[in-house]
Amino acid sequence: MPHSITLRVSGSRACFSSPEFKTERASYGVITPSAARGIYEAVYWRPRLRWVIDQIHVLKPIRFQSLTRNEIGDRISATSVRHAMRDGDLQRLSRNAADMRQRRAATILVDVDYLISAHLSLRYDARSGERLDEPLSIFRRRAQRGQYFRSPYLGTREFPADVALWEGPVPEHQLPADQRDRDLGQMLLDIDYTDNHAARFFHAILRDGVISVPPFVAAVRS
């Protein structure tokens, strides 16, 4: 596919939370296209361009682990921060943050390794005549050098991702026989920011270790 780039993404832990689980986090069995797009954007992002995920190759066995984590149940409002800065009383901010800590169970993935293929496309608001050659060249250079706009992560910031540009043949996966072909059910495809941040889903099927991702179509803006 033209304008296509492949990344190898791996890490010791990952959590791609399903939206159905609000309190206790439970990860999908593989990385979601939305999370994969976030990794591409961590390497290089520019307005009016969009990364479209085409395929996800699962290279290592799908393994889950249960653990308990400390999380913040709520965020301090911007108004509270402004008032604390105005009054010179920053102590109450740290005290409030401590009060909001919660211990929650999570089901996460361990030892993940993916080969992700994506292509770059123009958004609906792109300027006439805008080309993709330059941003693709910049992306390749940044990926080769390990340069990022922000640190890439695997679903949550506490699980960093190792990211490398991949230009060789697809490596053999290590999936056991019962994981090579699997119906993964409904999976988050992406968030439609043109439609009040609506979640879009697709029926994910793993065939010989590969998920083919359908095109994401945003709602038509009026």
Automatic annotation (TrEMBL):
CRISPR (clustered regularly interspaced short palindromic repeat) is an adaptive immune system that provides protection against mobile genetic elements (viruses, transposable elements and conjugative plasmids). CRISPR clusters contain spacers, sequences complementary to antecedent mobile elements, and target invading nucleic acids. CRISPR clusters are transcribed and processed into CRISPR RNA (crRNA). This is pre-crRNA processing endonuclease. It comes from Azospirillum melinis. Belongs to the CRISPR-associated protein Cas5 family. Subtype I-C/Dvulg subfamily. It comes from the Bacteria. Its EC number is 3.1.-.-. The keyword RNA-binding applies. It holds the Pfam family Cas_Cas5d. InterPro entries: CRISPR-assoc_prot_Cas5, CRISPR-assoc_prot_Cas5_N, CRISPR-assoc_prot_Cas5d. The gene is cas5c. The keyword Ubl conjugation does not apply. Keywords: Antiviral defense, Endonuclease, Hydrolase, Nuclease, RNA-binding. Signal peptide: none annotated.
